[in-house]
Amino acid sequence: MNTTPLKSLHMKEAATFSARILRDGEWFLAFSPEFPEGNGQGRTEEEALESLRESILLLIEDRREDVRASLSSGEKLVPLALA
């Protein structure tokens, strides 16, 4: 079973996703159409985007863990670079 963490994948360049940002009072909120379950918030746009990045990485790792737990004999999980 492959347990390579996301950060150790060797990609030529990072995959790029979209982020929607809106201001709600003193807070900025960030959402990604590609990852509707993920969201971020912060006092600045940069903080909201960093929070969204962390949220997306946690979603991906959580999904990997779910798949690892359900692998049958003869199945394996392998890295797939998008670049």
Structural description of this entry:
This protein is an alpha+beta fold and 83 residues long. It has a domain at 18-67. 31% of the residues lie in helices and 23% in strands. The protein has one helix and three strands, in the order βββα. A three-stranded antiparallel sheet has the order 1-2-3. The chain starts with 19 loop residues before the first strand and ends in a 13-residue tail after the last helix. The mean pLDDT is 88.
Radius of gyration: 15 Å
Q: Numbering strands along the chain, what is their spatial order in the largest sheet?
A: 1-2-3
Structure classification: alpha+beta
Low-pLDDT stretches: none
Query: End-to-end distance, in Å?
Result: 23 Å
User: Considering DSSP H and I runs of 4 or more, what fraction of the residues is helical?
Assistant: 25-40%
Count of DSSP H/I helices: 1
The chain-level mean pLDDT equals: 88
Oligomer state equals: single chain
Main sheet? Answer: 3 strands, antiparallel
Global morphology: elongated
Share of residues in strands: 15-25%
Beta-strand segment tally: 3
Q: Give me the strand/helix succession.
A: EEEH
